[in-house]
Amino acid sequence: MHGALLKVFELKTFVLFLATAVSEIVGCYLPYLWLKQGQSIWLLVPAAGSLALFAWLLTLHPSAAGRTYAAYGGVYIFVAVLWLWAIEGIRPTAWDVTGSLVALAGMAIIMFGPRHA
Predict the structure, then answer these.
(1) Which of 8, 10, 11, 59 is a good FRET partner for 1, with 20 to 30 A between their CA atoms?
(2) Distance CA 29, CA 35 (A)
(3) Are 77 and 71 in contact (CB under 8 A)?
(4) How does pLDDT run across 36-95, given as a tens digit for each residue?
(5) In angstroms, how far is CA 48 from the centroid of its own chain?
(6) What b/e sequence results for 11-27 when a residue is b if at least 16 CB atoms lie within 10 Å of its CB, and e otherwise?
(7) What is the 3-state secondary structure (H, E, C) of the chain?
């Protein structure tokens, strides 16, 4: 791929990973609210929808499934730490931030590194 086209591909991939991570976290957080915080069992309905969306979003990536899942893990870690801060109100530590950045670097290496045919 050429420079500008590669940048668009990278941005689209990252945004798709972000949406995938949010849908997975929501799908897991809602049952957590029911089980651990006594909220309504009806939270399982949107949780199931969110997890179905998560699975569908993973299929939209053009890379092989194993590579997609491996790289997705890095974005998931990053989004989970943002969730910790934005939703749970717990400020990430320097170690949380550093670990997230290392995970994102791993994602970038896996997804955007040179490929041989």
Answers:
(1) 59
(2) 10
(3) no
(4) 999 999 999 999 999 999 999 988 987 778 888 888 899 999 999 999 999 999 999 999
(5) 17
(6) eebbebbbbbbbbbbbb
(7) CCHHHHHHHHHHHHHHHHHHHHHHHHHHHHHHHHHHHCCCHHHHHHHHHHHHHHHHHHHCCCCCHHHHHHHHHHHHHHHHHHHHHHCCCCCCCHHHHHHHHHHHHHHHHHHHCCCCC
